[in-house]
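ok new one. same drill as before - structure tokens go in, u give me an amino acid for every spot. 286 of them this time. try not to just spam alanines like last time pls lmao
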């Protein structure tokens, strides 16, 4: 890994002592990263909207539990990211809005991050207990992808792989978990619905939002060679388009079979009518 570099930051200290309080408030607002929490709630809200749009049942208690757990898990990721970045030294000069830099207590920030992780996973376990065990497995996979993004010894975010990991975590994995969690009680992982799930549109919408938010919040950090600008956008479009094409092919095949069956029935009806007419004409001539 290259040596940490100092980068320009719009949160850099400036002005006199009179602006110290307002500057610190700005730093804390930047450290919280509240716009990114829209990414945490997007998969379950999209899943809920799809179920309502299809006229399917919705479990409000599952929705609320999933929302709270998702926010806590993203808080763990953000806080742990500040801790891991502080360990590498990239936030020392270039990121004054790091929670570790603001508090000066790495140990407490790490404890808070781990607390958010434990409580978030506990809530997800409750959601899985009330729906399907696959929900917890998918959420654990999302957490693992989040750790690969930022945690040692992997730190794949420093190698330009952050956006694909975000797409996997907040796209198909989180959205599939949300769809299973909101399904009626007793409808487990093997439950099949007559209405196809729009995997491409849901995962693409969720992942695109995460890629854009990730690009704004992480590509400015030192040594994080993100490509959330053009390449992150392109990654979301290519992967989403491939899923959309496969889903469209399956849907088109189903509709083609239905149209072929209807055409066959119409041809059979016309032939039967012609036979009846021919029989009637012969009988009249006789």
């Amino acid at each position: 890994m290259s040596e940490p570099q100092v980068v320009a930051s719009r949160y850099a200290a400036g002005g006199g002592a009179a602006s110290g309080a307002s500057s610190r408030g700005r730093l804390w607002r930047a450290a919280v990263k509240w716009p990114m929490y829209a990414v945490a709630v997007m998969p379950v809200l999209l899943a809920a909207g799809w179920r309502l749009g299809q006229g399917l049942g919705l479990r409000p208690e599952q929705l609320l539990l999933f929302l709270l757990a998702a926010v806590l898990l993203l808080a763990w990721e953000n806080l742990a990211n500040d801790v891991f970045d502080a360990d590498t030294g990239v936030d020392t000069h270039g990121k004054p809005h790091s929670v570790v830099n603001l508090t000066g207590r790495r140990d407490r920030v790490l404890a808070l991050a781990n607390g958010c992780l434990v409580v978030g996973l506990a809530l997800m376990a409750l959601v899985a207990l009330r729906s399907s065990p696959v929900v917890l497995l998918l959420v654990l996979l999302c957490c693992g992808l989040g750790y690969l993004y930022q945690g040692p010894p992997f730190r794949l975010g420093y190698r330009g792989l952050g956006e694909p990991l975000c797409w996997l975590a907040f796209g198909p994995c989180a959205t599939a978990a949300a769809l299973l969690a909101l399904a009626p009680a007793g409808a487990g992982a093997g439950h099949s619905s007559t209405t196809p799930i729009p995997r491409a549109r849901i995962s693409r919408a969720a992942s695109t939002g995460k890629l854009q938010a990730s690009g704004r919040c992480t590509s400015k950090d030192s040594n994080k060679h993100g490509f959330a600008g053009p390449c992150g956008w392109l990654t979301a479009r290519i992967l989403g388009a491939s899923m959309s094409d496969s889903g469209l092919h399956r849907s088109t095949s189903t509709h083609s079979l239905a149209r072929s069956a209807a055409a066959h029935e119409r041809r059979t009806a016309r032939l039967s009518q012609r036979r009846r007419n021919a029989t009637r004409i012969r009988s009249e001539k006789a």
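The radius of gyration is 27 Å. and btw DSSP finds ten helices and no strands in the chain.
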